[in-house]
UniProtKB/TrEMBL annotation:
EC class name: lyase
Molecular function in Gene Ontology: 3-hydroxyacyl-CoA dehydratase activity
Pfam families linked: ECH_1 (PF00378)
Protein function: Could possibly oxidize fatty acids using specific components.
NCBIfam families in alphabetical order: PRK05862.1
Matches recorded under SUPFAM superfamilies: ClpP/crotonase (SSF52096)
Reaction equation(s) it catalyzes: a (3S)-3-hydroxyacyl-CoA = a (2E)-enoyl-CoA + H2O; a 4-saturated-(3S)-3-hydroxyacyl-CoA = a (3E)-enoyl-CoA + H2O
The family this protein is said to belong to: Belongs to the enoyl-CoA hydratase/isomerase family.
EC number: 4.2.1.17
Organism per entry: Phaeobacter gallaeciensis
Protein name from the UniProt record: enoyl-CoA hydratase
One example of a Gene Ontology biological process annotation: fatty acid beta-oxidation
Length: 258
């Protein structure tokens, strides 16, 4: 499918999806959100893709939901269309790992989109924030929920109530991002992480993603039971035999997703 607000490139088993509305700092309008979800679903269904990177421009990963598009909507409209339910639900249904490579602004829906990915690699120029409070609303795609789980109540309240931005260093310290790299190295580092993931069995990367995500939904004991059962189920795969044999034979494993 031809896209107008994103650019998709598949190379060496990695799908790179770049948000591309530079004039609006990649603000998430309905078209971009629809195209992004379609591209993610296509990458999820594409056998050649084993990991996905989502990125923006140097200046902005995304500056939030499109304020122009939203500004005149009524309660009846946003409630009626269940605004932003679709983007949340379609992205959490993606089974392949998604890395957010964030440079510049990741604000409001942009920060929430980064948090919908499986982990965030940030450039040293990244700025995260939930400034919806300045617009007379609150976050609508997880900014009060996921951010709180990432950084804890105090910092989440600070971000959501004052609307201030966190720089990359603070975001790493707080546990929002997994690593910070110089801006020029952002895509190189994200691609290298994606390629490491792409080398694994896709059965195990999907299982690991599913198990980590369950930790948000389950009690500790239920989560550990879920993990153990999935761990047990891996012993039904050829890739488990291959992975352990390769270790014992001191060679590189050749996974076949079986
Ligand atoms: N929606 C629509 N357009 C946006 C936008 C947004 N969220 N953010 C930036 N733009 C547009 C600006 O309107 C401007 O367009 P024009 O040139 O046509 O005027 C262009 O992008 C460049 O922006 P600025 O001139 O403002 O650039 P700057 O460098 O001076 O400032 C910024 C950058 C601090 C990110 C500033 O643009 C800004 O504060 N943006 C809004 C951030 C925000 O409030 N995000 C939350 C949105 S609500 C939300 O996301 C709800 C939710 O949870 C789902």
């Amino acid at each position: 499918m031809a896209f107008e607000t994103i650019i998709v490139d598949v190379e060496d088993h990695v799908a790179l999806i770049k948000l591309n509305r530079p004039d609006a700092l990649n603000a998430l309008n309905a078209q971009l959100v629809g195209e992004l979800c379609t591209a993610l679903e296509e990458a999820d269904a594409n056998d050649k893709v084993r990991c996905i990177i989502l990125t923006g421009s140097d200046k902005a990963f995304a500056a939030g939901a499109d304020i122009k598009e939203m500004s005149t909507k009524s309660f009846v409209e946003v409630y009626g269309e269940n605004l932003f339910a679709m983007v949340n639900d379609r992205i959490i249904a993606i089974r392949k790992p998604i890395i957010a490579a964030v440079s510049g602004y990741a604000l409001g829906g942009g920060c929430e989109l980064a948090m919908l990915c499986d982990f965030i690699i940030a450039s040293d120029t990244a700025k995260f924030g939930q400034p919806e409070i300045n617009l007379g609303v609150i976050a609508g795609i997880g900014g009060t929920q996921r951010l709180t789980r990432f950084v804890g109540k105090s910092k989440s309240m600070d971000m959501n109530l004052t609307g201030r931005f966190m720089n990359a260093e603070e975001a790493e310290r707080a546990g929002l991002v997994s690593r910070v790299v110089p801006a020029k190295k952002l895509l190189e580092e994200a691609t290298s992480a994606a390629q490491k993931i792409a080398e694994k069995s896709s059965l195990t990367t999907a299982a690991a993603k599913e198990a980590v995500n369950r930790s948000y939904e389950l009690t500790l004991n239920e989560g550990i039971l879920f993990e153990r059962r999935v761990f047990h189920s891996m012993f039904a795969t050829e890739d488990q035999k291959e992975g352990m044999a390769a270790f014992l034979e001191k060679r590189q494993a050749q996974f076949r997703d079986k």
